[in-house]
Design brief:
By secondary structure, the protein is α/β, with parallel strands linked by helices. It has a single domain, classed as Spore Coat Polysaccharide Biosynthesis Protein SpsA, Chain A, CATH 3.90.550.10. The protein is about 45% helix and about 15% strand. It has eight helices and nine strands. It has a seven-stranded mixed beta sheet, sandwiched between helices. Strands 6-9 form a two-stranded parallel ribbon. Helix 2 links the parallel strand 2 and strand 3. The longest helix is centred in the last third of the chain and has 43 residues. The chain is globular, with a radius of gyration of 21 Å. Pfam families: Glycos_transf_2 (PF00535).
Amino acid sequence: MSKPSDKTLVIIPTYNELGNLPLITGRVRSAAPDVDILIVDDNSPDGTGEAADKLAAEDSHIKVFHREGKGGLCGAYVAGFRWGLERDYTVLCEMDADGSHAPEELHKLLEQIDDGADLVIGSRYVPGGKAVNWPMKRYALSKGGNIYISVALGLGLSDVTAGYRAFRRQVLETVNLDELSNAGYIFQVDMAFRVVQAGFDVREVPITFTEREIGESKLDGSFVKDSLFEVTKWGFNHRKEQVTSLVSELGKQADHGIKAFRKKHSI
């Protein structure tokens, strides 16, 4: 019997990941030999794109999508999603190129998809999850930020900024990818928020996040400021919409009650 995960595409965005690329693709191929890999390269000046083409020429499970320039992580994933949706993939996954997302744990995400989940997030902050080689300050900032975001948006998720994810294609066909915020890495939050609001089944599984050993992180200090500012606006608007909806519903109920009372008492 076929499963959704039988047709899985793992999307790996790259920018100057020449040292990491053969390592991460090799690990994916060993851990999940039946999935396909799409390398989305943003015209890396270090030759990552050329290395990706060589890997693809040697392995039919590896595909490459070249973008014209450094267009950001959100744009790379959206390009990868669209590439996969134009084909017959039923599950599309996000995975970092730097090894922070262990391909050996991909099965945890795919098992939940096969169990009926629509979006599965690999979480550092659910029981069993952890972050390795992170300074305490960064860990505290990330975990605290995730708590704030989840409460502000009413998501009920522990790691809404996480980038290790598996989506059913129906989710990506429903969400308007053109509207995703690309401020820093905030699109991960935006995507999760939209998926939860749409009523999809969102689950988290524990993963071990390992800080990169090769190359430089693309994350800068502006991420926290930009992200929390955006989330605060979204949270305010979300609560405003909830209150407006509640007031409207209460008004309808009151009007219905008044009409029923008048009818009963012939007023």
